[in-house]
Design a protein that fits this description.
- This is NADH dehydrogenase [ubiquinone] 1 beta subcomplex subunit 4.
- By secondary structure, the protein is mainly alpha-helical.
- It has helices spanning 9-12, 34-58, 70-80, 91-125.
- It folds into 2 domains: 20-87, no CATH class; 89-128.
- It has 4 helices and no strands.
Length: 136
């Protein structure tokens, strides 16, 4: 004969004696299905267990060198290591990449060329003298 499945985290969760049940879990504040309420209670139970585990590590009298927060590790991985599954090369991203790479370079080439042409024109008109310079 099979035994009953273990109770879920939502069934084991009890509100703190010093803090009332959150309004999100109070069935009188909204009219939703019992499955949704059970899922929210289960998520809250998991969050509270993770928070308790983190606070126990944080307030440990002989703490480890690094306190690992699993949520922070997941976030850092998603931001840094997991770039390519969410990036798709399209004509727009290719154009923007080329514009950001070549745009400033072409801009400064145009500015320096225009400045050099302006100086050369003033020298040829006799309004300015050509300074002796080895580098420019």
């Amino acid at each position: 004969m099979a035994s009953a499945p273990p109770p879920s985290a939502a069934a084991l969760y009890r509100p703190n004696h010093f803090v009332s049940l959150p309004a999100e879990l109070d069935p009188d504040t909204y009219d939703t299905s019992p499955e949704k309420r059970r899922a929210e209670a289960e998520r809250l139970a998991i969050r509270s267990q993770l928070k308790r585990q983190y606070l126990l590590q944080l307030n440990n009298p002989s703490p480890p060198a690094v306190i690992e927060d699993p949520a922070l590790i997941r976030w850092a991985y998603a931001k840094s290591q997991n770039v390519y599954p969410t990036f798709r090369p399209t004509p727009k991203t290719s154009f923007l990449g080329a514009a950001y790479a070549l745009g400033p370079l072409l801009f400064w080439i145009a500015v320096l060329k225009a400045h050099r042409d302006y100086k050369e024109k003033r020298i040829q008109e006799g309004k300015s003298k050509r300074p002796f310079s080895v580098f420019f």
